[in-house]
Amino acid sequence: MSQIIAFQGEPGAYSHQACLQTYPDATPLPCRTFEDAIEAVRSNAAHLAMLPVENSTFGRVADIHHLLPGTGLHIIAEAFVRVEIALLAVPGTPLKRIESAMSHAMLLGQCRAFLGAHGIARVTGADTAGSAREVAELNDPAMAALASPLAGEIYGLDILARGIEDEGNNTTRFLVMSPTPDRARRGTAGMMTSFVFEVRNIPAALYKAMGGFATNGVNMTKLESYMVGGSFTATQFYSDIEGHPDDANVALALQELDYFTSQVTILGVYPRDPRRD
After folding, report:
1. Which residues are catalytic?
2. 111 and 138: one domain?
3. Which pTM does this prediction carry?
4. CA nearest 209: which of 236, 245, 230, 231?
5. Which domain range does residue 148 map to?
């Protein structure tokens, strides 16, 4: 029996593409929300969950950083997926026939140049794959969808144009979540460690907490803050660093971090995706 990997969205979503790209032998399980995808793993309906955390054009995915610490799940891998946007239409439709295109607002904003050049109006849909499904159901040759080529294959739509995004390097980073941690050193690109922490209520606590990473030569690739529980004084930080907690320099940096924080939770230790570069 193959592994089941849960993702948020409909078949053909970019999260679905991430599942197929990273685990080609697994069975993808579409879920309505991020919480549903997480719960699928917690309830043993799925073995893993594929969650988007940030996009190179639009930044972090809302809500994910708030959800991660309370899931009880562990990051075991990361996956970088190129977001290729295709213009999809009902079979036999020429490009000149398209009057409007439906998609998630984020994708519509990424194809302004192409849509403007062809006089195509933008129609906001619930999501990318759902828009492709709706266009297939409407069967209106004047209406197209902006979605992944995978969505075109699934819903039987023609690809009139592909790679039409304004930014040619548009990429989304995904995290693979598992009910059990896996800190084994895998791959050839090194390891990553992700964690959340809250600093102690002392002057320059964050500055002092970060000092250990600088003095021990640990590269911090991400540091983000967000409020906890709606409080303006309780701030939690999310961080990604290069290295494994068993590495001498990382161990020293984490030890110093622990001194200046009230709480540190390691979310996962996992191989660095070579596509990160």
Report:
1. 172, 174
2. yes
3. 0.91
4. 236
5. 86-162
